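step=encode ok
step=design start
structure_in=
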């Protein structure tokens, strides 16, 4: 193939021109601007025929497009054979293969693409100049991409991946300045990941591709948006999916791609079905089916029939459902789409079970699973196993299994627990906590099944291990993604890993920094997480919680379930030496509890609270608390009608919470231990559902005895947080106390939402006395001449905080504004402290007017996402042993499935104990304004003093508990609002 053409050849599938001087592709708009006439490639009738076929393809008139290609191939085959003629035929066959793929004629596409590749291989060694080589490479890439798509759609993912690997290798030789072919390879890799059920990795790679798409590759945008929409809809993020689909449809319309606009109908129908909008889904699927049948796109038609079969089954039309499913299965079989056919078989299995045909259900389910196993689609294997386990549970509920019941339960457990573990572990692939939290809502259904089966079996040991594993928690991952045990990524990526740093320019201080889109992507990135640690249940045997089920899950589904690190579940390295009971709670539909004694006492137990009772009690508590999103109205409601502001109502609430959440047997044990060995310490790791419960207040009997009167209470974090780094230097008694007291937030007046929380400097004699006492006792940061200088400062920003913490501190006391993250968003790391940082400050959270808050994400990741030589947050802001965060819901971390908020970030960075709050705190001014208290009474200031006193005590948990008991006594004695639990019960010490 000689470089004899003087014009720029046109690639008809994409409409791209090639620069006649360089051989490089040119965007259509640029070609139109630079050349008023289309440049010839082969001459007519080929050039005009290619253009006509492309028009038919974009208009979804596939039959007409194929007719044009057939006619051109007939003419080409009549020409005298030569390398140039063979390339022409390969070009036509490659484009024909793309049309046949769009038309779902998979056998025809395979034949056309195979013949094209054979012709290209035949002329690979023919003499060709640089431009000719580029044209040959581009056509080879098109055939590889098309063949990969074909192999993926016919259920051959390993072969599809091999094609993409080969294409990625050839990209290094191809001049692809606008990145279109590279983006196509990347998109096909995303689609392959989606087919494997590796949703998190697929989303990450699609998002990165979209962020780096240029104007010259605009045709890739709607395809990427469509893929992201499918990912979001499949993982429970329906609003995001709707947004992606709307943008994709608009972009397809702008490109004039009629066929893909119709495909969006099917995507919207699927989204409606997943949302439960079944009538809308039926209408959209019917409309899409009519179009696909008219266009003879039988693959898409079969998908619609599959979905319509499900909808027919849901509305009770069993014959209609069976007919549609049979038609779908037959079409998939004709197309060779084995995985899609397996999906229909799985749906048929469910329908067979619904009509009582158990043997047919088993046959179809096993047939589908065999296909998934062979193709390496292991997430769907887990889904089949769960369906079989649910079927067993259902038959146990319906029929008496007699002597075989235990064996049936064991079989169901052997299916359900490994599958539930694998589905839960799949969340580690997702980049953001929001995506992981939405995925967990889907995966939690499987875990609830595992817990129900353990309860049915009355296996206390299994329940204990389920809770321990469930509560172990994920760990922050500062490196790359953990991935599956058999990663499907290519050895030669076509785009960089999201965690990879790429140099775009030099920062002012000479260090390498990220720039442009990369910086924005890094700043908006969420936290990656690693699997939880192994929980060692016995020092003697070395047994790990759920070890047989974990081994089964990792073997069956090739998914890493736990990290290599082991932690003992009985960890009780506290600041005191006394009896300790560790209580852990897990949400799995119902509320499950385990407890274990240590420190001179022995014993363990499990508890179980029905979901309805737990939800009712937690709902009553929520109604009594100041709402985080309600502002002044929520605070007023808490004072005027909330149960925590009225002694009789508070007693009823305390009893309701205890009856729903606290086992009487554990209370009896606490009394026995207390009588023999003194006041015990109760360590509670709450589940997200009960994370705001003031455990100290629980009325554990009808005589209004509270838990805080029987024991000291401390909150514990997941065991995964035990991996915090050792301090770079030992803490000394002479190290300073760092005081951040009501810092002035730039751009906010004292009476604004981010204004003063302690009032004007010098107006509170108790706080002035506190600061004076600290000054007299030793070093304080910042340096102060008078106590009043500690308040409302303007120089306490994140850089200052980093400096004083790096030098060494023994305590940190923060009193100021905290903005919690919305629980429904799932991203606890978005919680922020409000220091004196201006908008120009570098950080990982958005500026608020003229101020950039310091987020928990900053504290954890530091500058790692922002700079090529970035440092982790633990090095920038090393936490002292004791930290007080007195602000609104500063300890709200544990309300999230992943606890990476401000309190746990401090623990991650080295703190041994953090005192924080469970809910929004009323300021002293709120007590003055809403309850009519005189200005001399300052409940918030009293709490600050109590926390400071506790942090100076050898046993801060006991000392804070003593103050809480004193407040409880006053509340019982006089019922005055300043002694209500609104402030003092919000305080909790958090430890590892």
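sequence_out=
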């Amino acid at each position: 193939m000689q470089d004899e053409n003087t014009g720029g050849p046109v690639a008809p599938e994409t409409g791209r021109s090639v620069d006649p001087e360089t051989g490089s592709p040119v965007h259509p708009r640029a070609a139109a601007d630079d050349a008023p006439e289309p440049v010839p490639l082969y001459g007519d009738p080929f050039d005009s025929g290619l253009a006509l076929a492309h028009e038919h393809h974009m208009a979804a008139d596939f039959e007409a497009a194929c007719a044009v290609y057939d006619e051109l191939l007939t003419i080409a085959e009549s020409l005298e054979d030569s390398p140039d003629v063979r390339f022409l035929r390969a070009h036509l066959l490659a484009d024909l293969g793309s049309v046949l793929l769009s038309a779902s004629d998979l056998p025809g596409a395979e034949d056309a693409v195979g013949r094209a590749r054979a012709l290209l291989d035949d002329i690979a060694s023919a003499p060709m100049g640089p431009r000719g080589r580029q044209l040959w490479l581009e056509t080879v890439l098109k055939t590889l991409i098309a063949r990969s798509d074909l192999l993926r759609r016919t259920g051959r993912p390993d072969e599809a991946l091999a094609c993409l690997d080969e294409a990625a290798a050839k990209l290094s030789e191809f001049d692809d300045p606008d990145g279109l072919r590279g983006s196509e390879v990347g998109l096909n890799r995303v689609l392959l990941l989606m087919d494997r059920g590796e949703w998190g990795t697929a989303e990450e790679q699609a998002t990165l591709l979209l962020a780096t798409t240029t104007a010259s590759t605009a045709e890739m945008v709607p395809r990427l948006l469509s893929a992201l929409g499918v990912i979001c809809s499949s993982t429970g993020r329906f609003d995001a999916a709707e947004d992606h689909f709307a943008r994709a449809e608009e972009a397809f319309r702008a490109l004039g791609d009629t066929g893909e606009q119709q495909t969006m109908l099917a995507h919207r129908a699927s989204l409606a079905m997943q949302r439960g909008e079944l009538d809308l889904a039926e209408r959209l699927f019917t409309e899409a089916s009519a179009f696909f049948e008219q266009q003879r796109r039988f693959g898409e038609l079969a998908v619609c029939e599959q979905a319509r079969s499900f909808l027919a089954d849901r509305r009770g039309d069993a014959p209609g459902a069976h007919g549609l499913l049979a038609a779908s299965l037959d079409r998939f079989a004709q197309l060779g789409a084995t995985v899609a056919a397996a999906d229909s078989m799985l749906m048929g299995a469910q329908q067979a079970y619904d009509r009582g045909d158990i043997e047919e259900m088993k046959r179809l389910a096993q047939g589908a699973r065999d296909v998934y196993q062979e193709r390496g689609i292991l997430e769907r294997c887990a889904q089949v196993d769960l369906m079989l386990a649910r079927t067993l549970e259902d038959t146990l509920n319906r029929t008496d299994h007699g002597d075989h019941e235990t064996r049936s339960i064991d079989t169901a457990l052997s299916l359900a627990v490994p599958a539930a573990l694998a589905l839960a572990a799949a969340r580690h692939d997702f980049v953001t906590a929001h995506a992981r939290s939405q995925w967990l809502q889907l995966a939690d259904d499987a875990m609830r099944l595992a817990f129900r089966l353990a309860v049915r079996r009355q296996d206390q040991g299994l329940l204990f291990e389920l809770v321990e594993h469930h509560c172990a928690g994920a760990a922050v991952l500062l490196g790359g993604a953990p991935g599956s045990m058999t990663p499907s990524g290519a050895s030669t990526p076509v785009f960089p890993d999201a965690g990879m740093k790429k140099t775009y320019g030099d920062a002012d201080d000479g260090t390498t920094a990220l720039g442009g889109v990369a910086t924005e992507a890094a700043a908006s990135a969420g936290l990656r997480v690693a699997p939880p640690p192994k929980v060692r249940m016995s020092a003697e045997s070395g047994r790990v919680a759920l070890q047989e089920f974990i081994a089964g899950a990792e073997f069956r589904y090739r998914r890493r379930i736990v990290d290599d690190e082991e932690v003992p579940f009985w960890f009780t390295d506290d600041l005191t030496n006394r009896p300790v009971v560790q209580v852990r709670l897990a949400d799995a539909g119902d509320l499950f509890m385990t407890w274990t004694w240590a420190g001179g006492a022995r014993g363990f137990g499990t508890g179980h609270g029905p979901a309805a009772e737990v939800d009712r009690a937690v709902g009553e508590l929520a109604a009594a608390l100041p709402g985080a999103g309600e502002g002044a109205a929520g605070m007023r409601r808490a004072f005027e009608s909330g149960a925590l502001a009225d002694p009789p109502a508070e007693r009823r609430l305390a009893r309701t919470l205890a009856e729903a959440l606290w086992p009487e047997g554990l209370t009896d044990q606490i009394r026995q231990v207390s009588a023999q060995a003194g006041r015990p310490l109760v360590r509670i790791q709450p589940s997200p559902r009960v994370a705001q419960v003031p455990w100290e207040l629980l009325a554990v009997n009808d005589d209004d005895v509270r838990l805080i009167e029987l024991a000291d209470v401390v909150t514990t974090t997941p065991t995964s947080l035990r991996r915090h780094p050792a301090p770079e230097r030992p803490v000394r008694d002479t190290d300073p106390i760092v005081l951040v007291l009501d810092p002035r937030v730039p751009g906010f007046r004292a009476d604004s939402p981010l204004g003063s929380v302690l009032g004007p400097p010098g107006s509170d004699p108790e706080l002035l006395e506190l600061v004076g006492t600290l000054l007299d006792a030793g070093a304080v940061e910042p340096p102060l001449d008078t106590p009043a200088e500690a308040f409302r400062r303007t120089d306490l920003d994140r850089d200052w905080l980093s400096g004083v913490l790096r030098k060494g501190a023994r305590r940190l006391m923060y009193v100021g504004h905290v903005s919690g993250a919305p629980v429904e968003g799932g991203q606890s790391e978005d919680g922020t402290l409000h220091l004196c940082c201006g908008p120009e400050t570098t950080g990982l959270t958005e500026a608020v007017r003229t101020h950039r808050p310091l987020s928990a994400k900053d504290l954890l990741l530091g500058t790692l996402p922002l700079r090529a030589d970035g440092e982790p947050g633990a090095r920038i802001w090393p936490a002292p042993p004791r930290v007080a965060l007195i602000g609104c819901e500063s300890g709200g971390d544990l309300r999230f499935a992943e606890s990476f908020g401000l309190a746990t970030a401090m623990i991650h960075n080295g703190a041994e104990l953090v005192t924080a709050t469970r809910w929004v705190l009323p300021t002293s001014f709120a007590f003055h304004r809403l309850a009519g208290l005189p200005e001399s009474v300052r409940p918030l200031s009293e709490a600050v003093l109590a926390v400071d006193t506790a942090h100076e005590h050898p046993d801060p948990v006991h000392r804070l508990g003593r103050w809480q008991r004193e407040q409880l006594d006053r509340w019982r004695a006089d019922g005055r609002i300043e002694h209500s639990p609104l402030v003092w019960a919000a305080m909790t010490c958090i430890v590892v």
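step=design ok
step=annotate ok -> Confidence is low (pLDDT under 50) at residues 1-37, 486-523.
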